[in-house]
Write a structure and sequence with these properties.
Elements: H1 15-19, H2 23-29, E1 37-40, E2 47-53, E3 58-64, E4 67-68, E5 72-76, H3 81-95, E6 103-107, E7 112-116, E8 122-123, H4 124-129, H5 137-151, H6 159-170, H7 173-182, H8 202-209, H9 212-227, E9 231-233, E10 242-244, E11 249-251, E12 258-260, H10 263-279, H11 290-318, H12 335-366, H13 372-375, H14 380-400, H15 407-420
Antiparallel strand pairs: 1-2, 2-3, 3-7, 4-5, 6-7, 8-10, 9-12, 10-11
Helix pairs in contact: 5-11, 9-12, 10-11, 10-12, 10-14, 12-14, 14-15
The chain binds 5-S-methyl-5-thio-alpha-D-ribofuranose and magnesium ion.
Length: about 425
């Protein structure tokens, strides 16, 4: 879609009349659209999200706006992100069935996706802020990462299909541009839209912005993000892009989907768990969060272990793409050669994931788009102490990523920062 011709943003008032004839909605929630109850619940940075409810059912209608909702119409953003989200959802549904909401209808001109209403699911970030322990997230998300990343790559796909997808998602230019600037560059200089907890963080912010090793590391990570088109990424894989119940985990919002490094989604998710860990001290009004901290370190450990084990299992059973062909290894009686290549690839993913985690932590504290884990801590002295620990971990991960060998090592460092920087 070239421009915004024909596009009109929905409102709570206009939605029933405009979408009332859609078979996808009528099947789910009935034909009597004048009785539908509509509320707008979007709390993300970009889009409108409506819950549409009748006596017989409920659906979600997500519509892109031609600008960044967080900032306003001074920052235009193309509607085509909805097209990429729809296409990414279809691929993720095929690559890890049951892990993304079912898509009921897509309208490219109106940039809207009608999808399954997840209930009683809540956003994972909100659950973690509330101190809830979800027993399944590490396993579900580790598997999702391995399956979507492996199956979207040249390790698994037919080369022609992979190249077509690379070309398709390469047009998601403006959302990539957001990531390229907001994640990898803006946090490391006084960019216009940056903000941080002032004045408490002024000192450490100045330190980080003159830290040459850190700036080089961040640009190395940006270089990988821009140039290493290994697989179809979710592209914005943080705890706000996951919905949970005790039994179920679902992944939402892949509008930033693009081909990029295997490690990007992995690093983003781990970063958000480490940030949750450091933010817990700001949420202890109703009692200690020590149990929650221990839980989160366990989640981080299990997420990586599950990802690596599933990636290895897929390597051994589904490696049918053009890379590391069995004809060179297993078929020659050289299974060990394939294992050697797998180890080398997992090591690269590990090192890069740490680097991406480091910059993701920094951008959520120094850049435009902060996260609620820290933002909801109203005592700014307390918030700044939590953020300082995270910033220090982020710097260590980004700069020393090649010298870190296990999650246990990072978690031990997180515990030490937690202990040593007094609340
Ligand atoms: C202007 S958009 C800011 C952030 O919101 C999205 O959720 C992405 O994380 C993006 O970087
Ligand atoms: Mg989002």
């Amino acid at each position: 879609m070239a421009g915004n011709q024909g596009f009109e943003a929905l409102t709570v008032e206009t939605l029933p009349a405009r979408l009332g004839a859609l078979p996808a909605l009528r099947t789910r929630i009935g034909a009597g659209s004048s009785h539908w109850k509509v509320r707008e619940v979007g709390d993300g940075n970009l889009n409108l999200v409506f819950v549409v409810e009748s006596e017989t059912g409920t659906v979600i209608v997500k519509q892109a706006l031609p600008y960044v909702r967080l900032v306003g119409d001074s920052w235009p953003l193309p509607l085509k992100r909805s097209f990429f989200e729809y296409n990414a959802l279809r691929r993720q549904a095929a690559r890890d069935p049951g892990m993304v909401p079912e898509v009921l209808h897509f309208d490219e001109t109106q940039a809207l996706i009608v999808m399954e209403f997840l209930t009683p699911h809540v956003i994972l970030r909100q659950a973690l802020i509330a101190g809830r322990q979800l027993p399944k997230i590490a396993r579900d998300l580790g598997l999702f990462l391995a399956r979507t990343l492996f199956r979207g790559s040249d390790l698994a796909m037919v080369a022609k299909d992979r190249k077509a997808d690379l070309a398709l998602f390469a047009d998601n230019v403006e959302l990539c541009d957001i990531t390229e600037n907001l994640v990898f560059s803006d946090p490391y200089f006084a960019a216009k839209m940056n903000r941080h907890t002032t004045p408490q963080l002024d000192g450490i912010v100045a330190e980080l912005r003159t830290d040459r090793d850190l700036k080089v590391a961040a640009q190395q990570m940006k270089h990988l993000f821009v140039a290493k088109a290994e697989t179809l990424l979710h592209g914005d894989f943080h705890s706000g892009s996951v919905m949970v119940t005790i039994e179920e985990t679902r992944v939402i919002d892949p509008e930033f989907a693009v081909y990029g490094p295997f490690a990007f989604d992995v690093g983003m998710l781990l970063a958000n768990f480490w940030m949750s860990y450091f933010s817990q001290g700001g949420h202890e009004d109703a009692g200690s969060r020590a149990g929650m901290r221990a839980y989160l370190l366990g989640v981080i450990d299990e997420t990586w272990a599950t990802f690596a084990a599933e990636f290895a299992a897929l390597w051994r059973t589904e490696r049918k793409g053009i890379l590391y062909q069995a004809s060179l290894f297993e078929d020659q009686g050289d299974a060990l050669g394939a294992e050697q290549a797998l180890d080398a690839l997992l090591t690269d993913i590990w090192v890069e994931a740490l680097g991406f985690a480091g910059v993701e932590i920094h951008r959520r504290i120094l850049g435009l788009a902060h996260n609620a884990d820290f933002e909801t801590i109203t005592d700014t002295d307390l918030r700044a102490r939590c953020e300082t620990k995270a910033l220090k971990l982020g710097r260590h991960l980004a700069v020393n990523r090649r010298a870190i060998h296990s999650i246990a090592e990072v978690n031990a460092l997180a515990e030490r920062l937690e202990r040593e920087i007094v609340r």
